[in-house]
Amino acid sequence: MSHGNRFLPAWPPLISSAFRILFPITCSLLLSSRGALAAPLGIRPVWGEIDGVVTVGYRMDDTLVVRAKPSSPAGVEIRWPGSGLEPVAFRPRQQQGTVVELGPVRMRDLELRLRIEQRSATLVERTLEVTARAPSRFAVAFPLDTAVSGEFGSFTGSRTERTLFDTVRGTPHTETFPVGMLRTEGAVFGLIADSPGLWENRCQVLLDPAAGRLAVWTGDGRDPYPLVIRPPEDARDTYQYQMDGWQALGAGETRRFKTWVFASPARSHYDAQLAAHLAVANGSGWNSSALEAILRNTSHFLLRRNLALDADGRAREGRYIFISGPGYGWKQWVVDGFYTALGLDDPEKTIESNRAVFWTRMDYEDNAQYYLIWAVLMKRAGGTVNLPLVHQALDFIRKHEVDGLYVPPSLPGAPNSRGWKTYHDVLPYEDGDCPASNQGFHCGALMAAQELGLGVDDADVERAIAGYRSLFNAGRGFMPTSRMQPDVLGQDTLYGATLTYAVFGRKLLTDEQVLTHFRTSEKVKTPYGLRVISGADGSLLPGHSGVYCYGGSWFLNDAANYLLAEVHGLDRAEADALVVERIRREIARVPAFNESISTVDGHPHGHILYCWNSGYWWLRKEVRRRMGETGEDAVGIALDRGLGVKRVDDELRLER
């Protein structure tokens, strides 16, 4: 499956005046073009029966693409400790409208029911309900036995050999998006698992081209093995869990496993990846645009059950966490949990991931500030605020405040005492320095503490805002990375102000400061976005490579700058055009938002489907609300047009 690029060659760094004029007209035309589409490439179940056992295959249009086999007549197999996979033979079948119910069927101490719903012409949703009559350990497989030839692939690429992918670290092949696909000439069909966090963190994808099989598993039947993160891999904390390959239910407990079967036109692997995104979004109801689909799917698939124990073997609070990416393991930073939870916008997951925060995840970088802001959002939503922790967070940031400026300490035990002071952790700041990045969050955190009734007054807030404004380098025309590095241009310096505006509706910087920084940055930006840190002329600092913190471009930073510029007076059409341009670069090679992209050649770097970018969805929604912007989002419309995505009959589709 070769990687394609649905977009035209990248626009030049400076958007032409003509485009800025035409962009709103174009968006208006796009709004009117989201109409009728030719019949979609469909997928539907093919029902049969052998000796009273229900069989299920699938047709893509008129072609049989998945055949029922005796080993899995309805596409469900089960294994028990000490045995191999066995078919689940459903006999009763009831249909009402587009929904078919199979079962119940009893196997050992389990009762199983399967619900198959034709959600749309392009999507079939299947939900297996398992209830235990006695304590049970088991694992379920959901296979598709293919009836056509083609290229087998996971989300990240094609495979010609049998490969088992897992969604936890420590395995040979790791995926964030649990999908198995087969691409034929001009089309793709595939099978997607639900979030690992809803499957007790057990979720595998099997590709077996020789056997013609795609499958997702709820466990691989492994014996217990340790999954441990301890210092120095994590500088402060131990996370340990005896992982195994089994689901476990107590007597009377029920668990549900949801999977999706989808079909779509696809000319490339990129198309197939995008089609998988659209399928999940259509099935989940977050499908106003492909942009919403990608960002909220990222949150969904980074959800995990909070099962790891501390160094003393004690369970931590909170049912769920959001991981930053599988490579980071089962741990949650406050910032990443905050943005990823807001991107998913699920009240239970937000509350539980907030409960999972503990103190030693908070006393470095900007985590304490984020925790206070998160607490305000929780309180507004009717949630319970952890008062001891918010007091501790406030005491910590006030202890490190000097004349309104937040002077962060390094992470205790950090390998570099000058690092681990901002989200871009390895960037060094001298002791006593005030990074501009953190100062924006510091202002918002004090406003949060004030709203929470923690004894912060107006003078405290005004002092912090004055300190933030004092960092601006008027001679250079930009916000520098810190007070002691006034000639180093920083692009993580405004996103705290953007978050504060989204939460509290208050501007921290002057219009002149924000727009001057914006114009200077646009003059020196690279073809692949703004460098998170650079020389005043936009050049890489000595020894920097153009990726990660060393001059890479981080989407949330760039997008927040453009959102804030609009708040401070930039023409909306120009701001929207710049966001579209930046997103096009972000998703040029993979329809996913990355940890960073190279400002040298644009390639993704670090984790793909990276957590905190999901927060852009929420940030943009809140900024638009405060700016009084209504109706469909012009950015999503323009991106859908470039991707060949249309919204028809309440679902997103790739055009044939």
Give a description of the structure:
The radius of gyration is 25 Å and the shape is globular. Helix 13 (572-586) packs parallel to helix 15 (634-643). By secondary structure, the protein is α+β, with helices and mostly antiparallel strands. Mean pLDDT is 93; it is low at 1-37. The strands form 9 sheets. It has a 9-stranded antiparallel β-sheet, covered by helices on one side. Strands 4, 5, 10, 13, 16, 17 and 20 form a 7-stranded antiparallel β-sheet that branches. It has a 3-stranded antiparallel β-sheet with strand order 1-2-3, with no helix packed on it. A hairpin with a 2-residue loop joins strand 24 and strand 25 (405-406).
Q: How is the secondary structure organized here?
A:
Layout: H1 17-33, E1 43-50, E2 53-60, E3 63-66, E4 77-79, E5 86-87, E6 93-96, E7 99-107, E8 110-120, E9 123-132, E10 136-145, E11 151-153, E12 158-159, E13 163-166, E14 179-184, E15 187-193, E16 204-208, E17 213-217, E18 225-229, E19 239-243, E20 247-249, E21 254-265, H2 269-284, H3 290-301, E22 303-305, E23 320-322, H4 334-344, H5 347-355, H6 367-380, H7 387-399, E24 401-402, E25 405-406, H8 436-451, H9 458-470, E26 480-482, E27 485-490, H10 495-504, H11 511-524, E28 533-534, H12 555-567, H13 572-586, E29 594-597, E30 604-608, H14 615-626, H15 634-643, E31 645-648, E32 651-654
Antiparallel strand pairs: 1-2, 2-3, 4-5, 4-10, 6-7, 7-8, 8-9, 9-21, 10-17, 10-20, 11-12, 11-14, 13-16, 14-15, 15-21, 16-17, 18-19, 22-23, 24-25, 26-27, 27-28, 29-30, 31-32
Helix pairs in contact: 1-13, 1-15, 2-3, 3-4, 4-5, 4-14, 6-7, 6-8, 8-9, 8-10, 10-12, 10-14, 11-12, 12-13, 12-14, 13-15
